[in-house]
Design goal:
CATH architecture: 3-Layer(aba) Sandwich
Radius of gyration: 18 Å
CATH superfamily: Vaccinia Virus protein VP39
Number of helices: 7
Strand order of the largest sheet: 3-2-1-4-5-7-6
CATH topology: Rossmann fold
Distance between the termini: 42 Å
Number of domains: 1
Strand content: 15-25%
Largest sheet: 7 strands, mixed
Structural class: alpha/beta
Helix content: 25-40%
Oligomer: single chain
Number of strands: 7
Order of helices and strands: HHEHEHEEHEHHEE
Length: 218
């Protein structure tokens, strides 16, 4: 389903390339609002250049950031002050999570690279009782509503890029250098499988081609 003409889409793509901004970082403050003011330990899965892990460190006693890419972990370490209570480790999200449990687990734009249900089950095992899991992920547009929401996001995406860059052309942010792949699961598939793995999980469609999931372990 094409909501906007191809020539308009191409023009917006060129504009977005000139005024880029990090769609995932856009949700960082929203993630923090889902969490307690203070907590003991946090795990950021797919931590990238470490922006979210450093924000979590302002509230946590200790933070673990893991990513499968050694180069991005090295960059995160360089960008992080030694005084910040964050440890970045090259690790597989399914088999290499450092020993927990964790009071908070976050995962942003990473879950669509993993087997969804298996990953949720592993995250659940590493979450402490009373802990919070927050996910920001990508989904495949399937319904007419999905496509309309995506079309609405296109001009908003351009406007946000213009405002964040103060009308000046800019290079891609460091946090956007990692490659990603398109999501394969529709939102309805995500909801069904998430509720099987995490009863009571709250999922919402979001702007900028994202969804959110919040789950509290009792």
């Amino acid at each position: 389903m094409t909501v906007l003409p191809n020539r308009v889409l191409r023009a917006l793509e060129r504009f977005n390339a000139a005024y880029p901004w990090d769609h995932n970082a856009h949700y960082h403050q929203w993630i923090l609002r889902q969490l307690p003011p203070r907590f003991g330990s946090a795990l950021d899965i797919g931590s990238g250049s470490g922006d979210l892990a450093r924000l979590l460190a302002a509230r946590a006693h200790e933070v673990q950031g893991i990513d499968s890419d050694p180069a991005i972990i090295s960059r995160a370490q360089r960008l992080t002050s030694p005084a910040t209570p964050v440890t970045f480790t090259v690790a597989d999200a399914l088999t290499g999570i450092p020993a927990g449990p964790y009071d908070v687990i976050t995962c942003v734009a990473t879950l669509h690279h993993l087997p969804f249900t298996k990953a949720l089950s592993i995250f659940r095992r590493h979450l402490a009782p009373g802990g919070t899991l927050v996910i920001v992920g990508l989904f495949r547009a399937q319904t007419a509503g999905d496509h309309v929401l995506g079309a609405l996001a296109i001009p908003l995406n351009a406007a946000t890029g213009w405002l964040k860059n103060k009308g000046r052309r800019a290079p891609r942010p460091v946090s956007m250098t990692a490659l990603t792949r398109p999501a394969e699961m529709s939102f309805s598939d995500l909801v069904r499988e998430a509720h099987d793995a995490l009863p009571g999980a709250r999922l919402r469609r979001r702007l900028f081609w994202r969804y959110t999931l919040v789950w509290h372990r009792r």
